[in-house]
Amino acid sequence: MTKIAYLKCPTGIAGDMCLSALVDAGVPWDYLTNSLASLGISDEYELLLEQVYRNSQLATKVLVNLHHEETSHHHHASARHLPEITQIIRGADIPVRAKDWSLQVFQQLAIAEGAVHGVSPDKVHFHEVGATDAIIDIVGTCLGLDWLGIAELYCSALPTGGGTVKAAHGRLSVPVPAVLELWKLRQVPVYSNGIEKELVTPTGAAIATTLAQGFGSPPQMTIEKVGLGAGSQDLTIPNILQLWIGNTTAQSSLKQETITVLETQIDDLNPQAVAYTLERLLQAGALDVFTQGITMKKSRSGILLTVICLPNLTDTCKEIIFRETTTLGIRERIQPRSILNRQIHTVKTQYGAVRVKVANWDESTDFPAINIQPEYEDCAKLAREHDIPWRTIQQAAISQIGNRFD
């Protein structure tokens, strides 16, 4: 089994929230503080630990209190460039994996900031994200993941937030440009939870987009521990980052893909037009199309049209539905779908060749199979040619499968 973790981010993600969740999940405080001290910047900050409530839920909060003495050293530390940060991390006495992860996170952040400001990553003037607290948050997070033995990290879709935030370059719209660039680099799924605040910080986005292997629904796992990291703001829902820690389940080899489900109700369309619409949708590449009889408002009879397609065909399928039906609106949702590995074999019957779909857990397994089905069209073609029942062809194909593979 593989030790994995999942970041559940209903109110976003920030560096301090990641660090707090890891401490809450069991990373020893002494180990964390001693390891961070080896960075050689201990005179710039004080690390505090407390338990706080967010909407009546108890969570851990790690605070990085900066020393604000007006010294030239602190002024320099608050706006580092990537080469200096790299030197600090490389010189620290921390595990190799934590060191490598920390360097990767800052490199990812520098690439995003550089793209926003039109400069090379090494020339990025980090301002807030190069400040002491960002170094502590990022390196501390990597130390915690390493100490817990996390082999794979996954993350939920992220909320966009809204409004504006004050930054080194003035007041910026939320999400700030660096966060948008990081989302674009990793094609992160995002959504609005209706909270008009800065919910994802550049530091949090850099950690997630660098270290997470995927975004979306939780992976198949057995949860053994949950760490709760509190955010700084009080929001309408608990401002808590959840860190789920556990192991992969026995059937984690199942393939998963992301699909779009489109639905609409129709009560004023000729059934022939419905049939034509289904045909056009399948021709366009929809994975499945079906209708259900329903009773709509005012007790009118209607149908529920459902289309399942891959995300890249969503707009095409919606255009067909709007063009061919009388609907004025289409509901849309993104869902994960677990699928068996499928292979096509051909068997020879006394009536002719029939293709057979063989489904199994993964590509490495051939037989015994989980599901075996002769192709309908092949059976129908032979049934018409020989003028015999379709079931006769299907049964002949199934019997040949047993003869060939038993």
Automatic annotation (TrEMBL):
Superkingdom of origin: Bacteria
Q: Does the keyword Lyase apply?
A: yes
Which UniProt keyword terms apply here?
Answer: Lyase, Nickel
Does the keyword section mention Transferase?
A: no
Entry GO MF terms: lyase activity; nickel cation binding
Q: Where are the coiled-coil regions? A: none
Residues making up the signal peptide according to the UniProt record: none
Q: Which NCBIfam families match?
A: nickel pincer cofactor biosynthesis protein LarC
HAMAP family cross-referenced by the UniProt entry:
LarC
Protein family membership: Belongs to the LarC family.
This protein is called Putative nickel insertion protein
